[in-house]
Amino acid sequence: MSSPRPGEAGTFGAAVRLALRPEAPFDFAATAYSHGWVVLAPNEWEGETETVRRVHRLEGGTVVLLEMRASPETDGGGESGPGVEVTVRAPEALGPTERKEIRAAVTRMFRLDEELSEFYALCEERGGRWERVPRGLGRLLRSPTLFEDVVKTILTTNVQWGGTKRMARELVRAYGDPYPEDPDRRAFPAPEAIAADSPEAFGAAVGLGYRAPYVHEVAARVASGELDLEGLAESDLPTTELKRELLAIKGVGPYAAATLLMLVGRYDELAVDSVFREFVSERYFGGERPGDAEARAVYEPWGRWKYLAYWFDLWAGLEESL
DNA sequence: TTCCAGGGGTAGA
DNA sequence: TCTACCCATGGA
Question: How distant is the alpha carbon of residue A307 from its chain centre?
Fold first, then answer.
């Protein structure tokens, strides 16, 4: 598999650079590597150059390669501050509509329009290790669409992380549109591509186990227009109603719903899984296993920022154990 | 070989 | 609302 070098002007079609700048503080590498999403296909993380690479299918069907890295503090346009520099490699020149679509996709991935100042203020009040968070941490990477996030979240259920990576890889390999310059690289499947196959054929093509019918069903519902996930992602429904909508998706239970709420920017709910239970038990209960309600209560003081509080508590704990 | 994972659906109480 | 049971798959 060939790999265009970061910063190198591609010989394939047209290479375009876009600069996106969120309100400070913003930390590109911390955002990119904020959780496992960065290594789930079609995302790739190149540690040496701190680059996120991803094949991306535009709405019109054009398949491009996106390379995202930290932008310099200043650029030729006179803007300053950290941000995301996107190099787009495309088969032909991109029009304004396609550039706008790419900007929207990258903005969603890196949550460039998310407001975290209230959470940062709580971290400042706590002090100590929490003071690191307001330096640009807290934006947890997500996918360009809620559809991709729903599918990937279903792939995290009842399986070890290595299995999730394998399943995402298989899904992209079997149903993703190829990047013309390097057909081994593919985009995340469009719901229509999955829905075009029968559930049986889909299940046989990808090793998702009992998750296959769930993924097929959500793809079919999105493809038919019955389920408007992207509308749901942008809705201002109260969190409880949004959670109810997410739980109505087969394959999404309490853990997955809480993860998806996080992915749409609602941090009220905690995703209680084996990692959460183990961490809270060790850190706050001396190794004893509390009930889920008692474990959840640990983060109650964080109000609507519980998920982020748990997440950085977990990462700080991991760092201490190294 | 057995266990279990970054759980969830269903049936039955 | 709670519990029991079952669900594919692959790594340990």
Answer: 15
Regions of chain A short of the pLDDT cut 70 = 1-12, 74-81, 318, 321-322
Whether CB of A6 is under 7 Å from strand C: the answer is: no
Q: What is the DSSP letter of A207?
A: -
Whole-number pLDDT of residue A77:
58
Nearest residue: Cα versus C1' of C6:
A210
DSSP letters of A94-139? --HHHHHHHHHHHHHHHTTT---HHHHHHHHHH-GGGGGGGGT---
Q: Which residue's C-alpha is at the least distance from the C1' of B5? A: A159
Residue nearest to nucleotide C9 (CA to C1'): A209
CB A85 within 8 A of CB A69: yes
At A78 the pLDDT is 55
Q: Which of residues 21-60 of A touch strand B (CB under 7 A)?
A: 35-36
d(CA A67, CA A87): 5
SS3 A68: strand
Task: Give A85's strand partners.
Answer: A19, A69
Query: What is the DSSP track for A168-192?
Result: HHHHHHHHSPEETTEEEEEPPPPHH
Spatial separation of the C-alpha atoms in residues A113 and A21, rounded to whole Å: 9
pTM of the predicted protein model = 0.94
The half-sphere exposure of A218 on its side-chain side, counting CA atoms within 13 A, is 26
With beta carbons less than 8 A apart as the criterion, state whether A262 and A140 touch.
Answer: yes
Q: Using alpha carbons, select from A76, A104, A96 the residue that is nearest to residue A16.
A: A96
Distance CA A132, CA A241 (A): 33
Contact call for residues A13 and A90 (beta carbons, < 8 A): yes
DSSP string, A262-316: HHTT--SS---SHHHHHHHHHHHSTT----HHHHHHTTGGGGGGHHHHHHHHHHH
Q: List the nucleotides on chain B closer than 7 A to a protein CB.
A: 4-10
